[in-house]
Amino acid sequence: MVIRDKIFNTITQVFKRHGAVTIDTPVFELKEILAGKYGEDSKLIYDLADQGGELCSLRYDLTVPFARWLAMHSDVQAIKRYHIAKVYRRDQPAMTKGRMREFYQCDFDIAGAYDAMLPDAEILRITSEIFEALGWAGRYTIKINHRKILDGIFGVCGVPADKLRAISSAVDKLDKSPWDEVRREMTEDKGLDPAVADKIGAFVVRKGGPDLLASLQADATLAGNDAAVKGCADMALLFEYLDTFGVLDKISFDLSLARGLDYYTGVIYEVVTEGSAPPASKGGETPGVRKGEKKANGGKKAALGPDDDRSADPSVGVGSVAAGGRYDELVGMFSGKANVPCVGISFGVDRIFSITKARMEAEAGGAAAVRLNEVDVYVMAFGGKGFTGLLKERMQVARALWDGGIKAEFSWKQKPKLPQQFKAAEAGGVPYAVILGDDELADGKVRLKRLGLPEGHPEKDGVLVPRDGLLGEVRGRLKALEEEEEARRREDLERKLESLGVRS
Question: Residue 411 and residue 193: Cα distance in Å, rounded?
Answer without folding.
Answer: 75
